[in-house]
Amino acid sequence: MGHEQHQELIRALHECMTACNHCYDACLQEEDIKMMTNCIRLDRECADICSYLEQAICRGTPFSAALTSVCAEICEACGNECKKHAHDHCQRCADACFACADACKSA
Amino acid sequence: MGHEQHQELIRALHECMTACNHCYDACLQEEDIKMMTNCIRLDRECADICSYLEQAICRGTPFSAALTSVCAEICEACGNECKKHAHDHCQRCADACFACADACKSA
Amino acid sequence: MGHEQHQELIRALHECMTACNHCYDACLQEEDIKMMTNCIRLDRECADICSYLEQAICRGTPFSAALTSVCAEICEACGNECKKHAHDHCQRCADACFACADACKSA
Amino acid sequence: MGHEQHQELIRALHECMTACNHCYDACLQEEDIKMMTNCIRLDRECADICSYLEQAICRGTPFSAALTSVCAEICEACGNECKKHAHDHCQRCADACFACADACKSA
InterPro entries annotated for this entry (chains A, B, C, D) (predicted)? Predict the structure, then answer.
């Protein structure tokens, strides 16, 4: 991974982690929370793996190939779920998830 | 994953996390620390992914297949490194790593 | 912290982390999820700090006093919330939280 | 915590986590690693609490007062250790740690 790809990946992971935690927090306050349970679950899964990978990349993990691959899978699943919901926080989260999945796949 | 496999996986992850953190702590106190740098690195990688996966399994993550696969890879790498060193903490850590890799692959 | 207190603390943290993640997962499947939102939030807070502290204690953190104090606070808050709900998973989680708070305070 | 303080805290935590992981990775490659063992330990402690707190703040944790307080303590300890070493990565890490401790105390 070149220095620029590394920086871009860190940035994408950080934005995705932020967006997922914000969406998680907002979903728990929605009136239609019953419809948001998968979104709440996937937001946490996605925030946790992005946060994990961010640290791993920063410490020069030798396992970046396997970890970016699983992170891309989780980001896509979370993005697909968020995309279904009209709430602004869900739509913004979906965008961050898809951007992060792309950054993981290019890393 | 059946209930028994689930319990066995949680147990193996917990023991591996414990052994890796103990080995990390002990390596940092060894006289021959220069020879232990890969062990220190891999102990942290392995402790972190085991701790991560333990929580993910406990909350019913939908990504257990991908996560157990990457965890098995990291456990094996850590076990192979620890196996090279005669220190008791390294040998015990290697055993915990290989047992955890097996539990991940059977999950 | 003596060796027995150390082992007891690790055990209590592990059981609390497990119970909180199970309660989190179960709350997200409850019919009355609207009433469970604080429980979902606190289960995650508590699972995350217990998992964090477990690793920190295992690696001989020099910050155990400050970390066990904040963990006890979070465990008590989660236990108090869970105690309000009749669901079995909430009652069991409350017990694990209070036991863990006690272990943190005795450490 | 106002919106600007929140943004500033997230930024400081992220930069401190990045600097600590970079310093950890670089210390493990130093010739004088024997002198760097406390730095390696504290870099990990500090990276882990900053990463933890970043997520907690982003999801609106109700425990921000207790968590920022313990994070400030750990950042200061890590900054004080790093400050002793002339390596560029240690000096840059010390700066990030002290800035993060300040952000935690103002939050």
Answer: Csp_YhjQ, YHJQ-like
